[in-house]
Amino acid sequence: MDILLDPLFRIPFFVGLFVSIVLPAAGTLLRLREEWLAALGLAHLAGASGLVGLAANVPAVLGAPLGAVVGALIKAFGNFRGNTVYALMILAGWAITLLVASNSSLGSVMGHALFEGQLYFAGMVHLSAAICLVVLAALVLPRCMSKLIRARLQPTFEIANAVPAWRWHLSFDLLAALGIAVGAGTLGLMGAFALAFVPPWVAFRAARTWRQCLWISIGVGLLSYTAAFVVALLFDQPFGPVLVATLLVFGGLILAAGTRIRVFE
Question: Homologous superfamily of 10-189 in CATH?
Fold first, then answer.
């Protein structure tokens, strides 16, 4: 606990803590819509724009949201469904990232920083972005969640009743994009993806109800993040890989316990 209370690491810890609340919650809805690849697709676009920002001396946490938001807008107004568009985002983000890294002065150094995460260097800018993300999630999710669930379970309802569904679909897409972008700019690209993918995957197999699924997802994310933060500091390891490994270990332990009940059963 002394590590968590150390003033040097206090801001980084809370930055990651706030992100680890929002990403599992958003990832749960992405899995419900069978768009779990969105987390990786948006993360690659966020990584690419974050790298461009770093090349221009702009913090990744500020540069990353631009690419993710563009991806969310393309998905929403292009009327794409499923994971195909996110696979294209992965390819585009990967290509841009490598090209920028190869043709910038910092080169691979920036690429490693983006993939491994910059959590330990987080400051007030990152904390402000994380707080804004939590506030935005608190405003958007309660209003959109029931509508998104209904759209998944009763897909013809919106068409039959001429409901302007694009408003809450776009609102959620933008929230997910911003969450993954802030996560990629602080926890690293794969760390953000893992937080949005692994906890919902575990929760969908272990929960009995939707509410329980949501809380399990957030709980796994928070527990894994806290453990990874302590382990990475104690053993002087890069945070991103430790976070991904911790999520996989915790997820495997929960699934090994035998709780494999489907959501909504």
Answer: ABC transporter involved in vitamin B12 uptake, BtuC (1.10.3470.10)
